[in-house]
Amino acid sequence: MSLLSDLINLDLSDTTEKIIAEYIWIGGSGLDLRSKARTLPGPVTDPAQLPRWNYDGSSTGQAPGEDSEVIIYPQAIFKDPFRRGNNILVMCDAYTPAGEPIPTNKRFDAAKVFSHHDVVAEEPWYGIEQEYTLLQKDVKWPLGWPVGGYPGPQGPYYCGVGADKALGRDIVDSHYKACLYAGINISGINGEVMPGQWEFQVGPAVGISAGDELWVARYILERITEIAGVVLSFDPKPIQGDWNGAGAHTNYSTNSMRNDGGFEVIKKAIEKLGLRHKEHIAAYGEGNERRLTGRHETADINTFCWGVANRGASIRVGRDTEKAGKGYFEDRRPASNMDPYVVTSMIAETTILWKP
Fold first, then answer.
1. Which of 71, 119, 243, 274 has the fewest CB within 10 Å, making it most exposed?
2. 19-26 sheet: strands from edge to edge
């Protein structure tokens, strides 16, 4: 095993200028991540310099067998924390050979929203709080829970410390550092209310980069849990009963909100979000109805409400924002399995472009 470890950690820069690029894309479920690697002649920092590639879409549920080729376009580059050196991770989106975005390519429409001149002028910032649950591989039961049984009730686990409260911290800290190494603007981590559940935050990120960074952060976490022999779940309610669900609270602001008088802009934006509540809920993740029950720090899925410092609301405004009269708000509705390209672009579209 020591030889295997030595080979995995081999520094290629001593012998060759060639690098390894791991191309990443989203699979047919819209949540599963796929990747494969290719050798490039030398270091690359601009996605436009990278070659397009293809894969067998019939094996990912994205194309029929008789016309299976899907083309991936490189869109964003990150440093590879696994291979290190000049090796890279490449976030891609997927197209038909004719150049049409395939149905699971949600980045394409998001990029159109974020390139609109009104949206560019507002420079939308996002901070996404990604919650997730670590599961034991063979039984699909939360990490550290007795098989077929339950730990003590919620209370001591949120931001908890100790072997009986913080379950999986080595995975969480490894992910934190790997994301920083990769160049992802990860801004923090914490243990969540349900034991075995954790959260990381990505942001502030501007426009389309919020989606790119969150997807690659998810990819890195999948790879780390793969190494650890643990299963990663983004299910919004992994355990039924008196246990918190998992969300992806999305913090948002625009230039107008961040400047003097911004609180009035925030209130108008929240009003518009309320008018399109059903459309947003439909796009905010699968199985969210199991999470948004009005309990466990959520608003009921059929009800739209907002409040200052209210974690039982659809939209929460922080006390600092109310006091300063400007700042940001938090959309607490997105599920942990949401597509960040969809959620971030939809919030911008509704609050900036949509005219009721």
1. 274
2. 33-40, 19-26, 88-95, 69-79, 53-56
| pLDDT at residue number 133 | 98
* Pairwise CA distance, residues 320 & 309, whole Å: 9
- 307 forms beta bridges with 316
8 A C-beta contact, residue 317 and residue 307: yes
Residue 193 phi, psi (nearest 5): -70, -40
SS3 state of residue 320: helix
CB 344 within 8 A of CB 110: yes
Residue 82 · residue 223 · CB < 8 Å:
yes
Residues in the chain: 356
Pairing relationship of beta strands 248-253 and 19-26 according to DSSP bridges: unpaired
Mean predicted lDDT score pLDDT of the chain = 96
**Alpha helices (runs of H) in 123-261, residue ranges in sequence order:** 169-182, 209-228, 255-258
pLDDT exceeding 90 applies to what percent of the chain? Answer: 90
pLDDT, tens only, 221-257: 999 999 999 999 999 999 999 999 999 999 999 999 9
Structural tokens at position 21: 């690029």
Coil/strand/helix, residue 19: strand
Q: What is the chain's Cα-based Rg?
A: 21
Please tell me the number of Cα atoms within 13 Å of 185 on its side-chain side.
13
